[in-house]
Amino acid sequence: MGGFLDKPKTIKHNDSGEGNKLLYGVSSMQGWRCEMEDAYYARVGLAEGLDEWSFFAVFDGHAGCKVSEHCAKHLLDNITSTEEFRNGDHVKGIRTGFLHIDEVMRKLPELNQNAEKCGGTTAVCAFVSPTQVYIANCGDSRAVLCRQGVPVFATQDHKPILPVEKERIHNAGGSVMIKRVNGTLAVSRALGDYDFKNVKEKGQCEQLVSPEPEIFCQSRQDMDEFLVLACDGIWDVMSNEDVCSFIHSRLKITNDLVTIANQVIDTCLHKGSRDNMSIIIIAFPGAPKPTEEALEADKRLEKQIEEITREEVETHQITDYYELLQALQDRNIEGLPPGGGLHAKYPVIERTFKELFPDEKCETTTH
Length: 367
Description:
InterPro entries: PP2C, PP2C_BS, PP2C_C, PP2C_C_sf, PPM-type-like_dom_sf, PPM-type_phosphatase-like_dom. The protein is α+β, with helices and mostly antiparallel strands. It is built from twelve helices and 15 strands. The protein starts with a strand and ends in an 11-residue tail after the last helix.
């Protein structure tokens, strides 16, 4: 949903923190969309006896940002205040919290004056305790847990074409057309979207669009490296394996998670993502640490890319930035960041091009 700009807005909103033996970094960017509809929440150390717990969440709004922003502010309290969560049944507490906030928002004047325009949001969140990671997902944002550079767990996107989702939609009197609920909404579970939740003879979780999250519990292990929460603007152009291998390789160069999160978003932009993009990287004690060897290898790679860029320009008399990128894509350059490839090093190419052609623009139809 939503239109596109003539040029992407690449200013990023960043956040970071540490505590409970965790580090986290956040990057969020509007990109090509006319509006920024993503929201996030990150907190290390929770109140009321949960000092050793942390909470992280990404919300991808659609048809406006009201629902995503409200959930970013209030979902945590809606979960932790449930009787189930307070009594130690955390899975049931998370589910109850999701369903409760969806009912509460429905009654808010700013959201129910015009149900067709109130919009909705996906939600993916994680509670990290000293021994467990509880992950909840509603929609097509995604959580991926990485160990030793590979994804060992990932949530499943809630798309209308999934058999279970499609059956519920049909039972509620709806249809799936062009892979969308009633031909319009691309996700089958979301918070908000009350114009898809008006079948009176059906329960809250039996509507065309359900607010019910899928909840998973993963026992923490010493091999845990990091957890990624991100919206579909990331996953549209990078696979789970791509993101894990890319972040794993960058952690050997820097422990600045904001820098790495920014690099993921920039790489996705260069790979052609045209959506809002938000990502939270949560690093566990087992995450890779920077090494001098990896840092030197990255410096050599960037020097090599700069030399190859100058060579292509001089040899083939290239003066167009897009033509230069195409030529470099055809070159067999070894040692590129896994999962990111040459797209992850476009800043080096751009810097070199601007040195050679100060008055030329580094623009193409996709970035």
